[in-house]
TrEMBL record:
<feature type="transmembrane region" description="Helical">
    <location>
        <begin position="194"/>
        <end position="214"/>
    </location>
</feature>
<dbReference type="Pfam" id="PF06182">
    <property type="entry name" value="ABC2_membrane_6"/>
</dbReference>
<feature type="transmembrane region" description="Helical">
    <location>
        <begin position="21"/>
        <end position="47"/>
    </location>
</feature>
<feature type="transmembrane region" description="Helical">
    <location>
        <begin position="116"/>
        <end position="134"/>
    </location>
</feature>
<protein>
    <recommendedName>
        <fullName>ABC transporter permease</fullName>
    </recommendedName>
</protein>
<keyword id="KW-1133">Transmembrane helix</keyword>
<feature type="transmembrane region" description="Helical">
    <location>
        <begin position="234"/>
        <end position="254"/>
    </location>
</feature>
<keyword id="KW-0472">Membrane</keyword>
<feature type="transmembrane region" description="Helical">
    <location>
        <begin position="146"/>
        <end position="173"/>
    </location>
</feature>
<feature type="transmembrane region" description="Helical">
    <location>
        <begin position="59"/>
        <end position="80"/>
    </location>
</feature>
<dbReference type="InterPro" id="IPR010390">
    <property type="entry name" value="ABC-2_transporter-like"/>
</dbReference>
<keyword id="KW-0812">Transmembrane</keyword>
Length: 266
């Protein structure tokens, strides 16, 4: 925590740059908002055509989309640029320079590469979640809102852990971008209810790649559904714990990678 004030200073620099180049920021924000709006519309057309998917109505599936996008956006603010572009920094030798700083390289990387490009994503996600709540007549009380915040935080930690896990192999295999793309493809499965897939896929996204905890299981808390497949209903409450455990494991993997890192000599 001693580096928190310094971390905040880095973020303020990024935010100030955003206000200094306001026109560029607004154009990028508008284009990304439009892109996500089109994606939401295409998803809506697909769902509306079939009326429901594995017993989940259109707005219930939209809630899955909103929870996934919201947690992805939260993780993206801090983790997308640092870890998606880590292989390139290792190849160029830029990462070696970061190791010379008198600060934890993990925190330094996060603070230096904070991204302002996810406000549009977060806005679209918030709109979709609120719309789903209204259309499904979900009226959350204070406890529900607190749980929603914890779910988004836990989901963001799961998404962040995926960024870290995909990037760390770059310490040994400099061309590791395919791992990031593979995990991103895997996350595409959770756009739809897990119950729509074969049992093997359900187990994989619950126990091996626990992406179902980002949206499928916690959504059942708000929807009061009983669609837990072969698993216990308690899973709807576990997103914050799964996120914390997975992120801790990802950080240990990062430390292992750092301890066995050999410079590319660039």
């Amino acid at each position: 925590m001693q580096h928190a004030p310094l971390y905040w200073q880095f973020i303020k620099i990024k935010l100030k740059a955003m206000t200094d180049y306001r026109s560029s920021f607004l154009i990028i924000t508008f284009s990304k908002t439009l892109m996500w709006a089109v994606e939401v519309y295409v998803l809506w057309i697909l769902i509306d055509r079939f009326q429901s998917i594995a017993g989940w109505s259109s707005y219930e599936v939209m809630l899955l989309f909103g929870l996934n996008l919201a947690s992805y956006s939260l993780a993206g603010f801090f983790f997308y640029h640092p870890f998606v572009y880590l292989p390139k920094r290792i190849q160029s030798g830029e990462f070696d320079e970061m190791l010379t700083k008198p600060m934890n390289p993990f925190l330094y990387l996060l603070s230096r590469e904070f991204s302002t490009g996810y406000f549009s994503n977060m806005g679209v996600a918030a709109f979709v979640v609120v719309l789903a709540f209204v259309k499904l007549d979900i009226r959350p009380d204070a406890l529900d809102l607190l749980f929603l915040a914890l779910v988004l935080l836990g989901g963001a930690m799961i998404q962040a852990a995926a960024f870290v896990f995909a990037a760390v192999p770059a310490f040994w295999i400099t061309q590791s971008g395919s791992l990031s793309r593979l995990l991103n493809d895997f996350k595409g499965f959770i756009r739809y209810p897990l119950s729509a897939y074969h049992g093997f896929v359900q187990v994989m996204f619950t126990l091996v790649f626990p992406f179902a905890f980002i949206n499928f299981y916690p959504a059942q808390y708000f929807l009061r559904k009983d669609d837990f497949l072969m698993f216990h209903p308690a899973l709807q409450y576990l997103t914050p714990l799964i996120g914390l455990a997975l992120f801790a494991l990802a950080y240990r993997f990062w430390k292992f990678g750092i301890n066995h890192y050999r410079s590319t000599g660039s």
